[in-house]
Every structure is written in C-alpha cells, then in structure tokens.
C-alpha cells in the first residue's frame, strides 16, 4: 500500500482528472463546461479551509501547553502495553468524535502522540490510524451535519420531508446500535492489527516534542524592553483569555450545549492563550503549529474544484440514480449508504454531499416508502465511512502526527471494510 499510494497532493490532482473524464462520459457536459465548473468551485471552500487550518493550529497550541500536556500525559500513563495504548486511543477518539468531529480529529492525534511518548514498542503508524478510526462515528453523533440540518426549521428539503427531530436520526435505535457496535469492535480490531515486534515501527519520544523551546522565557526581567515585558506578561494572556471565556459562558447559556467547528476552535484558541501563560509562549507554539498546515492550505481548493465539477455537471446525481435503480424497499438504505460512500470520495463535505444527493435519494425513498430519517442517516454514514481512506479529512491528524497518508492507509483500508460491514448490517436489520 505504501509503495502505490501517492502523496495527498498528487492524489487530489489525479482525482481532479478522473472526475473531469467521468463528467465528459457520463453527463452532457463539454470539456469547456467541466473547466468552468472546476474554476467556479475552486475557491468555494476558503472559509472552511481556514476553519480546518485552525483545527490543526489551535489543537496543537492547546496540546503543547504545559497544563494540557500534563493531563494528556497522565491519561496516557494508564496504558501499560502497546495493546492497551491502541485500545485506549481508539476509545478516546470514538467518544471525542461522537461529541464533535473537529474535537475528535484533534484530540485523537494529540493523545496518540502522548501515548507514543509513554508506551514503548507501540507501532506509531497504527497508533495514528487508530486515532483516526474513531472519526468514522462523527456523522452519527452530536455534530452530524445531515441530521442537524433536517432538524432545523427552513432546511431546503422541508417541503418534502418536514422537520425530522434528532430522536429519529442521531438517537434512533438503528443509529445507536451502529455507534455502540463500532465502539466495541474497532478497539479490538485495531488491537489485533498491531504488528510483531520485528515489524513494529516506533518513534523516539524526543522527536515528538515541539522544535521550539516554549519554556524559554528565562530572560532576566530587568533585561526586558517595554515591548518584551508586554509579550511576556501573564496579565495580558489572562485578560484576553477571560474575554474569550466570558463569550463562551454567554454562548452556552443562550444556545445550550451546541457545538460547531467555530466554537470548538474558539474554545481551543482561548484555552491555549490561558494555558501558555504569556503571549510570547503562545505565539511560539503557533509558529510551530503552522508548519504542518501546508497540505490543508494547498489541497482544499482542489477538492472544492472537484466538488464544483461533481455538482454542476450532475455527475453526483448520476451516481446516486444508478444505485437507486437497483434498490428495493429492503436494500435501499444499504445502496444509499454505498452510493454516499462513493460520492463522498469526490464531495468530501457532509453538508455539500447532502445538497447533492438529497433530491435524488429523498424522492426515491418516497417512491419506495422508506423512512426519510433512515435515508438521511444512510447518506450520513456513507459520508463518514469513506473518510477512512479519503486524505482530505486525514490531513489535520497527519499534520499533527508528522506522518503521510500512506503511513496509515493500509490499516485504514482494513478498518474501512470492517466498519462498512457493521454499518451495513445496522442499516439492513434495525
């Protein structure tokens, strides 16, 4: 697998031309049409790209603070063997991703790094793959964009399906069973994938430490210039941090425990400012963090271009309709799940994918008399499922870990097939 999987940037270039070709052969689009769709969509994910950069940067900054490192280290110390480390990081990642997908992406990778420092002879590639594996549950959890969208007044499909509460999606019996099954199966699966001692690839704990000396503020106070005194002032960080915490109190009082990507980044950012103690330590941590953001910054516009071609050409609808044509009332949720998994490879955004697939899938569900809620969750699970082998979503975790996609992809493929079987059974039988 490592020999044949290209760098994620080359992968997205190859994917671009694959979608371009499919658009020409499977739709009525001309080459110039496809070029236009690609260019029109290219910058459509700029805001989201910045959010993902901040997922990486704020998560790294928080984790590199002395207090947070101590907490993660204490939890990592509970693992006494490589097998326990793999199980623990998988469990933490699943729980965190179920609560909020951005939180899960960052915490899983950061915790894996702490485990690598504490536990000897644990395979670092599998550790990071296990941390990423928990991400598969996100769309069945509190931050699932599709179930939250159809539970919101004024969503674009409301005229057809009305408002569907989360009691019929996130907290539906079939969805809870799928999440619990993955919670039990994935840690065991990951544990048994650990290679033999001879084939284990470890990493030196020293290499996992930040390159900057974040505790280097040991200059004599009398030697500091007025500007340096402000940069090294705890009072400045305290005031800014308290301002951020005041807004969070206001937000949660008025909105309840409603997490989104902006709020998660906000929490991480201001906790990072507080926990680092001084603006100088905080900024040095930020400088370390942004070194790993290059892949996100460059690749996300190309994925946006792919999304533009998929949606504007009608290619995503063609793929969806192909699966609808071979479905019946019993198999429809399964084929919806599989089609969503395929479409997700080209439209790796839950909200964007729902906009593309909802008109086709909901009309088919109506014709086959299949639950709208289950149809929506089948799309949601398909979207989450193939994220396991989609470098788009792995980029923040890989940047934190200092690995490439090919380092973890072999493990992720195994997890993909096993989790796909679990989700399929859940959609068919419950």
Automatic annotation (TrEMBL):
Name the record gives this protein: Short-chain fatty acid transporter
Entry's transmembrane regions: 9-27, 42-64, 85-112, 124-148, 169-189, 234-252, 259-276, 296-318, 330-347, 408-429
Record has Disulfide bond as a keyword: no
Pfam families (UniProt xref): SCFA_trans
Keywords (A to Z) from UniProt: Membrane, Transmembrane, Transmembrane helix
The organism of origin for this protein: Bacillus mesophilus
GO CC terms of this entry: plasma membrane
InterPro entries in the cross-refs: SCFA_transpt_AtoE (IPR006160)
């Amino acid at each position: 697998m490592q020999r044949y999987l290209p760098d994620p940037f080359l992968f997205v270039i190859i994917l671009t031309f694959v979608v371009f070709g499919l658009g020409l052969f499977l739709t009525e689009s001309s080459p110039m049409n496809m070029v236009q769709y690609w260019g029109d969509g290219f910058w459509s994910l700029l805001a989201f790209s910045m959010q993902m950069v901040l997922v990486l940067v704020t998560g790294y900054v928080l984790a590199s603070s002395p207090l947070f490192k101590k907490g993660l280290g204490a939890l990592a110390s509970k693992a006494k063997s490589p097998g326990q480390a793999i199980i623990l990081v998988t469990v933490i990642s699943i729980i965190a991703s179920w609560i909020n997908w951005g939180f899960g992406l960052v915490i899983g990778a950061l915790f894996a790094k702490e485990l690598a420092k504490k536990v000897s002879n644990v395979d670092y590639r599998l550790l990071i793959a296990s941390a990423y594996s928990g991400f598969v549950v996100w769309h069945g959890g509190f931050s699932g964009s599709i179930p939250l969208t159809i539970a919101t007044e004024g969503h674009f499909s409301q005229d057809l399906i009305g408002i569907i509460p989360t009691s019929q999606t996130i907290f539906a019996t079939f969805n809870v069973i799928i999440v619990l099954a993955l919670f039990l199966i994935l840690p065991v699966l990951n544990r048994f994938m650990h290679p033999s001692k001879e084939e284990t690839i470890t990493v030196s704990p020293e290499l996992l430490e930040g390159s900057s000396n974040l505790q280097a503020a040991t200059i004599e106070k009398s030697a500091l210039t007025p500007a340096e005194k402000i940069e090294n002032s705890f009072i400045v960080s305290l005031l800014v941090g308290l301002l951020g915490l005041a807004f969070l109190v206001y937000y949660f009082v008025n909105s309840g425990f409603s997490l989104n990507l902006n709020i998660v980044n906000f929490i991480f950012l201001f906790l990072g400012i507080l926990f680092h103690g001084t603006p100088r330590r905080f900024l040095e941590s930020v400088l370390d963090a942004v070194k790993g953001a290059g892949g996100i910054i460059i690749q996300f516009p190309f994925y946006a271009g792919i999304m533009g071609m998929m949606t504007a050409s009608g290619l995503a609808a063609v793929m969806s309709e192909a699966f609808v044509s071979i479905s019946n009332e019993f198999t429809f949720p399964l084929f919806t799940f599989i089609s969503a998994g395929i479409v997700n490879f080209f439209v790796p955004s839950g909200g964007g994918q729902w906009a593309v697939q909802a008109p086709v899938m909901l009309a088919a569900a109506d014709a086959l008399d299949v639950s709208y809620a289950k149809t929506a969750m089948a799309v949601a699970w398909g979207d989450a499922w193939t994220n396991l082998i989609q470098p788009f979503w792995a980029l923040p975790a890989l940047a934190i870990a200092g690995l490439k996609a090919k380092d973890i992809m072999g493990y992720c493929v195994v997890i993909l097939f096993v989790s796909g079987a679990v989700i399929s059974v859940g959609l068919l039988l419950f």
